Amino acid sequence: MHTCISLLQRGDMVVGIDNLNDYYDVNLKHSRLDVIKQHRNFKNFHFSKIDIADRKAIQELFLKEKFDCVLNLAAQAGVRYSIKNPYSYIDSNINGFLNILEGCRTHKIKNLVYASSSSVYGSNTKTPFSEEDNVDHPISLYAATKKSNELMAHTYSHLYDIPTTGLRFFTVYGPWGRPDMALFLFTKAILDGKPINVYNNGEMQRDFTYIDDIVDGIIYCIDNPAKPTPSFTPKNPLPHISNVPFQVLNIGNNSPINLLEFIKKIEENLNCKANKIFMPLQDGDVLETFADINQLHKLSGYKPKTNINIGIKKFIEWYRNYYGINS
C-alpha cells in the first residue's frame, strides 16, 4: 500500500494484485485499498483480486498490462506459521514466484524487484549480516522459500538477461502493518489488558525498519535495475555465470534493539505497563537480526531516517485512530 501511494504520488500507472486471503483480518486489507482509492491519482491505479499461484491468471495479467517493471511483494509471510501450514508457502512463495518469473521472461520485462527476507541468514552469528555471508542453512521453511526465490531469480537473470533485485527486509513495521508482527501484537494486547508472550525471556534483538525507509529503498530499486556484476557471493565467484544483472540487497535500519527495550518504548507511548509472560525460544526464530546496509548505501545513498521512538509513536497514533481508541 505504501509503495503504491508513493508511485501514484509521482504519476506512475500502477496495477496492484492480491488474493485477499484470510491469513489475517481481511478488513484491514480492504481498508488499505480504500486508502489508495482516496489518492488524488487513483485513476492511475487498477486492482485485481488475483493469486500469484494462479498460473493462468498471471499469464493473462502480463499479456494485458505490458508492464515496464514488476514489483513482487506477494508472499505467504511469517516464520512460525510456516511450521503449521507449510503447503501455503510452497504455493505462494515458490509456485507463485515462478509464475512471476515466467511472466517476466515471456514479456521481456525490463526490471523485477522482489521481497526476500533477513530470515535467510538463519542462525548466523556474525553481525551485522552481510550479503556476502553464507545463507545455506535456513531454520524455517519461510526462510528456505526466500532463499529459493533468490536462486530462482539468479537463474532467470542468467538465462534470460532479466535484471532482478531481491531485497532482504529486516523486520518492517509502521502504520497499516501486519497484525501478526510484534508491534501490532504487543500494542493490541496491552490496550486490551491481556498478557504478551516474550520469547527467549526477551533475550533477542531485532533490526526494526520503519515502512517509509523501506519504501525509499524499493523506489530506488524500481528506478535502477540491477546491472551485470559478478556473482553476489565472492567466496564462490562462479566465473562461468558472472556478469549477470542480478543483485541481493539488505534493507534495514542498521540499529538493532533488544526486545525488552522495544516493549518498554511501547509501554511509554501507551502510558500502560505490559503483563509479560516469558517463554522459551520458538522453533524457527533467530536470536538477532542486524543489517549491514553498506551495499545499498553505496548504490543509492540509502540511510534510514526514522528512529524507533518516532516509528513506534506513529504506529500507535495510527492504531488508536484506526480502531477508534481514544485513551
From TrEMBL:
UniProtKB keywords: NAD
UniProt KW Zinc keyword: no
Statement: the UniProt record of this protein carries the keyword Metal-binding: no
Domain of life of the native organism: Bacteria
NAD-dependent epimerase/dehydratase domain span: 2-227
CDD domains, per the entry: UDP_GE_SDE_e (cd05253)
InterPro entries the record matches: Epimerase_deHydtase (IPR001509), NAD(P)-bd_dom_sf (IPR036291)
Name of the protein: UDP-glucuronate 4-epimerase
